[in-house]
């Protein structure tokens, strides 16, 4: 597994404060929120209690109190800018205040009733002042210039500032609350009854996996299910076999593909969303075709969320296996939250699904009609290697077969060699990571055999009629003479160094194939 949330229109909630009576004219710049000049933030001539400042419903703690001048409320410079999430600097020599946020730049000078906002001159109703070493600025002007809403509560003698970010956040929270309240839990049986016909088995000329019907012509699956496939069929839960036209959309990074059928599907499409509610510990249900057992249902929990290379994965304890790739992971509300894609053999049930949000973006790019011309993914290997040099073949093997993901981990292969021997055989060899082999050698033999046979099939396709020997070797140097090995497997290197080298995989082919794997 080479493991989006909904892009919110919110930024981090920013606290802000203060305000000043707007000034006449406003800001003459489309990128800057106009500062109202119709009303001034004025307190009564005699204030019974000090002015309080709230930003996004939180009261600001100020070491020096705000005051009014010429009917305008002024507040300490740095707290207001900080609360609004803006940067601010003070140039003592010129007594200039410079603040900025989200592309808005504000410049004011002490004693001057003119400010500069994004290069435009704006008149102020009250100039910044310095009192007892503290610089004060007109609160409303600063807040509204930075696109915040300002209200004066004369009864409370308080200023309330609300940033756009906070308004958006409150709206989002209300939407989520309303959506959560409208959801209805399903039993596993009810969920399966609703979506069993929406999950299919995909068989290609290279692999077997699962798929999710997401449209009249479209099925969602994993990229690796369709990789290097030149043909594919879909088998529905009713046993119908349907031909695949090609791949309509693909995201290799997220390991997702949407395939297009030649004929319309008679199945319930699964709706795609952004999975805004999932939490660790939530129950989930997986439906897929592990080991070819069509539409097998299993359940478990969300164990974790993982982010890798820009892709969000859901870790789950719901059992899956080979053939489950491209299957569905639902929550208890019947919402698709992930596409099952990988697992690690362990008693801990470590399985993974690609978050549905990645698929939602892909489906949205397809439009409403099937594409007129679709094709399968370009093959990762060339159509032929006939006539290519040994160096070219060696580079190809190193690029495409230097590692393989096995149940016990990743086996790596180095020191690739391609040579033609005196009998005309093309001998291709590589060394397996000795530490990995020493740890897992006996348990990976069957997987190494399958991996090697797949390589043999590709080599036979690219080099038809060629006599090929494919060797995987163990090669390591020790500070002692290893015992219990054949004489030709142990070599004295001198200086009390000994080399142990033996063949792990020996595969030979010319149209047909034989293979021997060391346990």
Helical proportion? 10-25%
Number of strands: 32
Shape: elongated
Strand content: 35-45%
Terminus-to-terminus distance: 27 Å
Summarize the main sheet.
7 strands, mixed
What does the radius of gyration come to? 34 Å
Class from helix and strand fractions: alpha+beta
* Contiguous uncertain segments of 5+ residues: 1-40, 42-48
| Number of helices in the DSSP assignment | 9
- pLDDT averaged residue by residue: 88
Keywords: Hydrolase, Protease, Serine protease, Signal
Signal peptide: 1-30
Pfam families: Cu_amine_oxidN1, Trypsin_2
Organism: Paenibacillus radicis
Q: Would you give an account of this structure?
A:
- Keywords: Hydrolase, Protease, Serine protease, Signal.
- This is Copper amine oxidase-like N-terminal domain-containing protein.
- One of its GO terms (molecular function) is serine-type endopeptidase activity.
- The chain is α+β, with helices and mostly antiparallel strands and 519 residues long.
- Helix content is 18%, strand content 38%.
- The strands form six sheets. Strands 26, 27, 28, 29, 30, 31 and 32 form a seven-stranded mixed sheet that branches. A six-stranded antiparallel barrel has the order 14-15-16-19-18-17.
- The longest helix is centred in the middle third of the chain and has 19 residues.
- The protein is elongated.
- The N terminus is likely disordered.
């Amino acid at each position: 597994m080479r493991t989006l949330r909904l892009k919110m229109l919110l930024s981090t909630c920013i606290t802000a404060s203060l305000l000043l009576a707007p000034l006449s004219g406003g800001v003459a710049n489309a990128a800057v929120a106009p500062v109202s000049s119709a009303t001034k933030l004025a307190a009564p001539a005699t204030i019974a209690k000090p002015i309080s400042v709230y930003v996004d419903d939180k009261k600001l703690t100020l070491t020096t109190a705000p005051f009014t001048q010429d009917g305008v409320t002024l507040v300490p410079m740095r707290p207001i800018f900080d609360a609004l999430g803006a940067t601010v600097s003070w140039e003592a020599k010129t007594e200039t205040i410079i603040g900025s946020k989200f592309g808005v730049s504000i410049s004011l000078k002490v004693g001057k009733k003119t400010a500069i906002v994004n290069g435009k001159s704006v008149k102020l109703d009250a100039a910044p002042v310095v009192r007892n070493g503290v610089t004060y600025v007109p609160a409303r002007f600063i807040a509204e210039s930075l696109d915040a809403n300002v209200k004066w509560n004369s009864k409370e003698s308080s200023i309330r500032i609300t940033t756009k970010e906070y308004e958006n956040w409150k709206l989002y929270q209300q939407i989520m609350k309303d959506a959560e309240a409208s959801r209805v839990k399903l039993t596993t049986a009810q969920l399966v009854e609703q979506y069993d016909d929406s999950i299919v088995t995909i068989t290609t000329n290279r692999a077997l996996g699962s798929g999710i019907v997401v449209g009249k012509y479209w099925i969602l699956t994993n990229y690796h299910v369709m990789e290097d496939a030149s043909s594919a069929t879909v088998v529905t839960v009713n046993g119908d076999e349907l031909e695949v036209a090609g791949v309509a959309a693909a995201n290799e990074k997220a390991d997702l593909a949407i395939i297009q059928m030649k004929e319309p599907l008679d199945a319930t499409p699964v709706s795609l969303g952004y999975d805004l509610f999932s939490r660790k510990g939530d129950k989930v249900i997986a439906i897929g075709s592990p080991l070819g057992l069509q539409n097998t249902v299993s359940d478990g929990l969300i164990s974790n969320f993982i982010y890798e290379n820009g892709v969000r994965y859901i870790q789950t304890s719901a059992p899956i296996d080979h053939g489950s790739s491209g299957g569905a992971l639902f929550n208890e509300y019947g919402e698709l939250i992930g596409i099952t894609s990988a697992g690690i053999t362990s008693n801990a049930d470590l399985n993974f699904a690609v978050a549905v949000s990645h698929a939602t973006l892909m489906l949205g790019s397809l439009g409403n009609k099937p594409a007129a011309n679709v094709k399968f993914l370009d093959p990762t290997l060339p159509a032929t290697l006939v006539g290519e040099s040994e160096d070219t073949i060696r580079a190809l093997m190193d690029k495409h077969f230097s590692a393989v993901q096995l149940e016990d981990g990743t086996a790596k292969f180095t020191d690739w060699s391609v040579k033609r021997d005196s009998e005309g055989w093309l001998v291709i060899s590589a060394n397996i990571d000795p530490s990995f082999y020493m740890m897992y050698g006996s348990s990976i033999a069957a997987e190494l055999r399958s991996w090697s046979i797949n390589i043999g099939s590709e080599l036979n396709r690219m080099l038809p009629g060629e006599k090929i020997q494919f060797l995987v070797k163990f090669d390591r140097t020790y500070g002692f003479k290893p015992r219990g090995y054949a004489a030709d497997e142990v070599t004295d290197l001198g200086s009390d160094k000994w080399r142990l080298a033996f063949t792990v995989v020996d595969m030979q082919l010319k149209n047909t194939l034989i293979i021997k794997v060391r346990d």
